[in-house]
Design a protein that fits this description.
Blueprint (H helix, E strand, L loop, with lengths): L15 E11 L4 E8 L2 E6 L19 E10 L4 E5 L1 H16 L4 E9 L2 E6 L2 E6 L10 H4 L5 E9 L5 E5 L19 E9 L4 E6 L2 E5 L12 E10 L4 E10 L1
Parallel strand pairs: 3-5, 8-10
Antiparallel strand pairs: 1-2, 1-4, 2-3, 4-5, 6-7, 6-9, 7-8, 9-10, 11-12, 11-14, 12-13, 14-15
Amino acid sequence: MEDFSHNPLATNHEILEGIIRLVQFDILLNDYVAWLDFEGDRVIIPRQELELYEIKSTLNHYIGMKVQFKIMSYDEQRRVYLASCKEIKEERRNDIIARLKEGESFEATITKIVYFGAYLMIDGISVILRNQDFSNDYTTVGDIYHEGDTILVSLLKVNDNMKINVQAVEKYETQSSITIEDFEPQTVVYGLVRNVKSWACFVNIAPNLDAICPVPTYFNVKEGMKVAFRINQVRLDEGRVRGKIIKIIH
């Protein structure tokens, strides 16, 4: 019988690569794990070691996925290696943050478009691009791009939980001649919810022009939603527009 304790994997701290073959519940770890068959050795990656952040969904979408990992330890009784993808991603994330802070821009790939913007991937690390950091008007990421497209981004901020927010190097802006002087009370316009506070909503209705309105109580409004906005007041001297959200556009 092979002596696994002398297998070079047990002390190998290099980055390895393998394909996840199955996902199952591990009684000892009391959670689901991903299994790899790596060069004849059994390797398991616990749920909390797959990603930088907590995975709340099932692990089924990892089946067949090629991942990079490092060996953490060896369980002699079970004859399996415990591995981590998280450690590699932490090192890579820290490197990307350092380079972004130095002013470097990256071609990021759009992996998922959501109502508030999009999730992008930079060298295997997920970052967030919000609509308001993509364009100067009501244009959303999804209006211009598709999943799989790339966009040049730079650093906006790093949150306390180490999530990376980026901004488009060149913000998109619709070629429009509409200005605040074109709006009148009772006009209904197309807009994009930029921000939702406890006391008000900010809705972009023209390039570089956000209108303000009360937070609706009759439906739930979120950042990134497209809405119909009725103008109630135009203050040219202050450059302000006030009104009301009357409909969510799906």
